[in-house]
Amino acid sequence: MYEGIVQDLIDELGKLPGIGPKSAQRIAFHLLDAEEESARRLAEVLMKVKETARFCEVCGNVSAEDLCRICADPRRTDEVICVVEESKDIVAIERIREFKGRYHVLGGAIDPIGGVGPNDLRISELMRRLASNETQEIILALDPNIEGEATSAYLSRMLAPMELTVTRLASGLPVGGDLDYADEMTLGRAFLGRRAV
Ligand SMILES: [Zn+2]
Questions:
Q1: Which CATH number fits domain 70-196: 2.40.240.10, 1.10.150.290, 3.40.190.10, 3.40.1360.10?
Q2: pLDDT value at position 52?
Q3: Which of 14, 24, 55, 177 has fewest C-beta within 10 Å?
Q4: What is the pLDDT of residue 133?
Q5: Widest Cα–Cα separation across the chain
Q6: At the topology level of CATH, where does 4-52 sit?
Q7: How far is the CA of 70 from the centre of ligand 1 (A)?
Q8: 3-state SS, one letter per residue, for 121-168
Q9: How far is the CA of 14 from the centre of ligand 1 (A)?
Q10: Are 104 and 126 in contact (CB under 8 A)?
Q11: Which of the 8 DSSP states describes residue 192?
């Protein structure tokens, strides 16, 4: 334990995902040593992100405007919508440069143990979107774990009565992890090899 505010900083950093006690300590001491100006910039960005960052009205992606860059891009097609759990999955799929459609962010996955049901996700928003545009294919690109599987199965059932091709990423993604853990080549192959459900 350190004294006062330094320990407070370590405690706060330690609450962040993926930051263990050792990393929290290392980051805290890095900040203590850093120039005041760079610490101030970090603090300002933290405040600003809470005040100004928002979510795209259409797809739920993090966005600086009402519409995210992808939804606002006229070169992209509404014919294919790729359904993902989180905005970070969009970043992973964009990195493979294969997809020219739009996205839909669910905001998580069905997780009965964690208390997340279908109504907690942006599924009704997806259904509304499908009612009003020319989408022909839905790609389910959920995490290759139990929650992602449950969510894919649920969505497949919901989408079955609609006149749509529903596809899923091919197997080969590292099982149990997050979609964005996969390297670009593996994710690219899974994307191109997607199959109808
Ligand atoms: Zn969007």
A1: 3.40.1360.10
A2: 87
A3: 177
A4: 67
A5: 63
A6: Helicase, Ruva Protein; domain 3 (1.10.8)
A7: 6
A8: CCHHHHHHHHHCCCCCEEEECCCCCHHHHHHHHHHHHHHCCCCCEEEE
A9: 32
A10: yes
A11: H
Q: How far is the CA of 108 from the centre of ligand 1 (A)?
A: 16
Q: 55 C-alpha vs ligand 1 centroid, how far in Å?
A: 8
Residue 174 Cα to ligand 1 midpoint, Å, equals 27
Nearest alpha-carbon partner for 104 in 68, 145, 52, 150: 68
Strands 195-196 and 137-140: unpaired
**Residue 62 Cα, ligand 1 centroid: separation in angstroms?**
8
CA of 87 from ligand 1 middle (Å) equals 10
Distance of CA 133 from the midpoint of ligand 1 (Å): 14
Positions of CATH 3.40.1360.10 in the chain: 70-196
CATH 1.10.8.420 range(s) for the chain read 4-52
